[in-house]
Amino acid sequence: MNKPLMAKATAVWLIDNTTLSFKQIADFVGMHELEIQGIADGDVATGVKGFDPIGSHQLDAGEIEKGEKDPAYKLKLKHNPAAEGEEKRRGPRYTPLSKRQDRPAAILWLVKFHPELADAQIAKLVGTTKPTIQAIRERTHWNIANIQPIDPVALGLAKQSELDSAVQKAAKKRAADGGVMSDDERRKLVSTETSLSMGEEPRLPTAIAGLENFSLSRDEDEKPEQDLNADSFFNLPESDDDDEDED
């Protein structure tokens, strides 16, 4: 069932003008029952003017009468072409005022560590505009010298699942375009969930690093001055002491 237009204002009107239960109103406008109770208590939607669903041809008066007589009755929304897809409408992501100053840092992090992401993906993730992204990407932003890259998930501007989804889409697009990726780029295109499930790569201890290139064999062209073996260490040259005694 589609939601009525101006759901919160409609809930205010139903609370003020009917005896419907909170559950009935919540089911009709698509809100939680506790939110409806909060509106009734004056804690939620303060200052919101009620919107008449009957006058806007979204609800019949007979539906309200049935609901008032039977608390288990669910109100039926009248077909309104203007309300179709209302719950699916998508606008730009809203960013609280307290976090808007963090967006340049998040953009710089995405541009630096995920350059494969398109400007449209970054704009959707952190709720910014393409000119701002372009300015940071080209380092022409007015405050670029003071911006430090910070993970948008850590800043609370995006969810980890949203970032992983965007990265995976970028990976599929890169693969479809036939682009050749470096090892670093390939690691960046792996989602956080996948990277955490990977085992650690075997590494040599620092103390013996480089020994994989060490060899005891000599080149065939290299000819040693003399063959070294166990006997050569014990067959010492004869001493000249006898000659000295004869003298």
What does this structure look like?
Pfam families: TrcR. Residues 238-247 have a biased composition (Acidic residues). The structure is a single chain. The chain has 2 domains: 7-88, no CATH class; 97-193, no CATH class. It is mainly alpha-helical and 247 residues long. It has helices at residues 7-17, 22-29, 33-41, 61-69, 97-100, 103-113, 119-126, 130-137, 152-155, 160-177, 183-188, 192-197, 230-234, 241-246.
Structural features:
247 residues; DUF1013 domain-containing protein; TrcR
Strand-helix topology:
Elements: H1 7-17, H2 22-29, H3 33-41, H4 61-69, H5 97-100, H6 103-113, H7 119-126, H8 130-137, H9 152-155, H10 160-177, H11 183-188, H12 192-197, H13 230-234, H14 241-246
Helix pairs in contact: 1-2, 2-3, 6-8
Q: What are the low-pLDDT stretches, counting only 5+ consecutive residues below 50?
A: none
Distance between the termini: 125 Å
**Which structural class matches the secondary elements?**
mainly alpha
Mean pLDDT across the residues is 75
Number of helical elements:
14
Q: What general outline do the C-alpha atoms trace?
A: elongated
The largest sheet is: none
Strand-residue fraction? under 5%
Biased composition (Acidic residues): 238-247
InterPro entries: TrcR
Region (Disordered): 80-99, 174-247
Pfam families: TrcR
